[in-house]
Specification:
Layout: H1 3-30, H2 37-45, E1 64-65, E2 70-71, E3 74-78, E4 82-83, E5 89-96, E6 115-120, E7 127-129, E8 132-133, E9 139-143, E10 149-159, E11 162-172, E12 187-190, E13 193-199, E14 207-216, E15 219-220, E16 223-224, E17 232-237, E18 243-244, E19 246-248, E20 254-258, E21 263-273, E22 278-287
The structure holds copper (II) ion.
The site of copper (II) ion has 6 residues, from loops.
């Protein structure tokens, strides 16, 4: 082969290589490929990300959390997933990233870096706790569960201004007496206080206002600040215990919540009276289509 024809062959080869690369490039652009399992899971959870889906459902962004032990690269690792009945025990956990490294840079949300919710699957035995962060990045807290059953635990926190609610199950062996969800009621009595709920119609996918009043013997009761607001509210969906993010009002016992679907929800309202005592009032909320 002459030098010229060799160079020509080389040029052709180069051209082919470039054409191939360009073709591959265009293939990548046109077909973004299959999303990773993680992305698919995140999309599934955030079916609420779209304004409306094929079924015409109205959805608010990130309305539902607490269905997964792992989300958006972070995982809740419980040290133990069984607990003794009626005995105080130390519950420990950590949050790890994709490489298994312990996460430590939590944001302060509602005056705390970590919120921990424990509730039995039938939505009784609700506890909202604040664990202690240890030097090695693990979190620990004393917990007592008087009743046997399957419990759901939620680690509620924020990292890099991204909110997370990771959940796992904790089992207490023993005879379980499950309770039916109470019917919706406009008022409940807790610790001698009457707590009333006034809301506009709670419609799936629309922001609803949930306002509470507290009275004792018919007279209004003074409420002091708790976790940087007048009160704290956790809403859980019956069936899967999906955890709803609720926005409190700083000055009133009032919250804005978007219920993602119709059905029944359990609301756990917590507030502090002037004497420093913390009270928890639970309501069943009916949400319509
Ligand atoms: Cu908390």
């Amino acid at each position: 082969m002459s030098v010229v024809s060799r160079l020509t062959a080389f040029g052709l080869l180069l051209a082919l290589v470039f054409a191939g690369a360009a073709f591959a490039g265009s293939r990548i652009d046109v077909h973004p490929g299959k999303p990773s399992i993680e992305q698919t899971a995140a999309r599934g959870m955030g079916a609420m990300d779209a304004d409306a889906n094929a079924h015409g459902e109205r959805m608010a962004p990130q309305a539902v959390r607490g269905l997964a032990v792992s989300d958006n690269g972070l995982t809740l690792e419980l040290e133990r997933r069984t607990a003794p009945q009626g005995k105080r025990f130390a519950l420990a956990f950590r949050i790890v990233d994709r490489r298994g490294a312990t996460v430590r840079d939590f944001d302060v949300e509602h005056t705390k870096r970590m919120h921990f919710i424990v509730v039995r699957r039938d939505m009784t035995g609700f506890q909202h706790l604040h664990p202690t962060e240890n030097a090695d990045g693990t979190w620990s807290l004393p917990v007592a569960l008087p009743d046997a059953g399957s419990y759901r635990v939620f680690a509620d926190f924020s990292v890099g201004e991204k909110p997370y609610t990771l959940a796992d199950d904790l089992t207490v062996d023993g005879d379980v007496r499950s309770q039916a969800l109470p019917a919706p009621a406009g008022a409940v009595v807790v610790d001698g206080l009457r707590v009333s709920l006034t809301e506009g119609a709670a419609v799936a996918g629309r922001e609803s206002e949930l306002a509470f009043t507290v009275t004792r013997a018919g007279k209004p009761v003074a409420i002091q600040s708790y976790l940087g607001a007048k009160g704290h509210l956790v809403a859980l969906r019956r069936g899967d215990l999906a955890f709803l993010h609720v926005h409190p009002d700083e000055h009133r016992l009032q919250f804005m919540a978007t219920f993602p679907t119709a059905g029944r929800y359990r609301l756990f309202l917590q507030f502090k009276t002037a004497d420093g005592r913390l009270h928890t009032a639970a309501f069943t909320q009916e949400v319509t289509r």
